[in-house]
Amino acid sequence: MRRGIVLGIIVFLAVGAVGCGKKTEPEITEVVQQQEADTTEDADNGQSVVYESENWHLSLQLPDNWDYQIQSEEALEKEDGRYTCAIRFWPKDYPEEIFVLGYQTEFGMCGTGVTIEDIALDNGITGYRYIEEIENTLWLTITLTPPEWDVQGGTFLVDGSPSVEDWKILQPEFEKILQTIWVGKPEKKQDDTIKVPLKEEILAKRQSCLDGMSEDEVTRLAENIKTANLQLEYGYLNDKLFERLEDKDDLYWNYIDEKGDIIIGYTEADGEQEPIVVYNRFDANNFIDLMEEMKSLLQADGLQDDFDHLMEYTRQAKETHDVKYIIEIYHILHDMDYFLLHYAPEDVAPYVRDRGTIGTYYGALEVYKQEK
Q1: Among 70, 58, 65, which residue's Cα sits nearest to residue 176?
Q2: Residue 183 C-beta-side C-alpha neighbours within 13 Å
Q3: Which residues sit opposite 2 in a β-bridge?
């Protein structure tokens, strides 16, 4: 029997770690929402260069002493080149030493003296580094595979062919740039039919909703909602949570139905199926109790309807095994965390590189609809 220690789908660590009101910095999954060929200045990291189309996302951070050129799908289609889309970048003092971050639909390596190394970036991207030195040129290719990548037939990569002498100078800065790279699918854009609350509206609504609560009560409420949101967000972005729960009989529903030791799947060992057993601290009933407790902390009108919805959607999720209720729960927790109890562009954005997920507002909160 394979065992693990994890926490329930809905709330996981929500109440146990924050009862004392201790505040911790959020750990946010990183996703970006930018316009095609966008560049923004970053006071600490130089310039953020982003290319995003309907099919692909490429981004990296460049120091101020580097330059770049965006090569879109439309432009490269006319050139009939190797890349589908690309960002060319180079140090301003060495303009002939051009590196390319891009996507190729067909990729292959050749050469008799190529060395191959595994790489793993800090953001979860993995791949291989291919290096071959021929005369005075270093031929460098780095393949990149983002987490949970399920597209077949193409490859994200970085390549370049600097001189050996220049590479000795450029490599330290190049390695820092490499760690900032993100590649993958384009992220979901904000639905332009939904009005996103502005900072002033968020701050005013937060003050009115939390009026009368002690500082410890506000902290506890915010931490519980944040923790629940981040755990669902991680499952959504990295573990195909909603896809699994589309199957009413998937064993992930045990997170909702049961507390204690639960089976969430099976693995094969020595030709036999072994259950994957985890310890679930919170089931649906525990989450409902927690939300009822959080609702009881409120002294002013405003958020009660949203907590009622969280509890009712949880009951419906347990009774029906319909994933739409889990998605509704996630949307409420997400909006409450990023657009009410926190202001994501200032409170969360400094801790993430890509900001698409935290910048998406689902319009799920009743508190913003009450005055319309």
Answers
A1: 65
A2: 27
A3: 276
- pLDDT of 38 reads 45
SS3 state at 305: helix
> What is the spatial distance between Cα 305 and Cα 302, in angstroms, rounded to a whole number?
7
Distance between CA atoms of residues 340 and 343, nearest Å: 7
Report which secondary-structure segment, H or E, holds 261: strand 260-269
pLDDT at position 235 is 84
Residue with tokens 């409450």: 336
| DSSP secondary structure, 6-29, as one string | ---SS-TTTTTTTTT---------
Instruction: Give, in order, the Cα–Cα distances in Å from 315 to each of 286, 309, 363.
Output: 11, 10, 22
Q: What is the mean pLDDT of residues 335-339?
A: 95
Which residue has better confidence, 259 or 19? 259
Q: Is the pLDDT of residue 73 over 60?
A: yes
For the chain, the residue count is: 372
Return the structure tokens found at 280: 């679930």
Amino acid present at 51: Y
Q: Is residue 97 left, alpha or beta, with left meaning phi > 0 and alpha meaning psi from -120 to 50?
A: beta
Of 186, 174, 189, whose CA–CA distance to 101 is shortest? 174
Closest CA to 130 of 155, 151, 95, 150: 155
CB contact at 8 A, 134 and 147: no
Distance CA 224, CA 248 (A): 27
**pLDDT tens, position by position, 219-276:** 999 999 999 999 898 888 777 889 999 999 999 999 999 999 999 999 988 888 999 9
CB distance 317 to 340 below 8 Å: no
H-helix segments, 260-322: 284-296, 304-320
Distance (Å, whole) CA 276 – CA 190? 37
3-state secondary structure string, 98-146? CEEEEEECCCCCCCCCCEEEEEECCCCCEEEEEEEEECCEEEEEEEEEC
Per-residue pLDDT tens over the stretch 124-139: 899 999 999 999 999 9
Instruction: Report which of 265, 261, 266 is spatially closest to residue 252, judged by C-alpha positions.
Output: 265
pLDDT over 50 at 33, yes or no: no
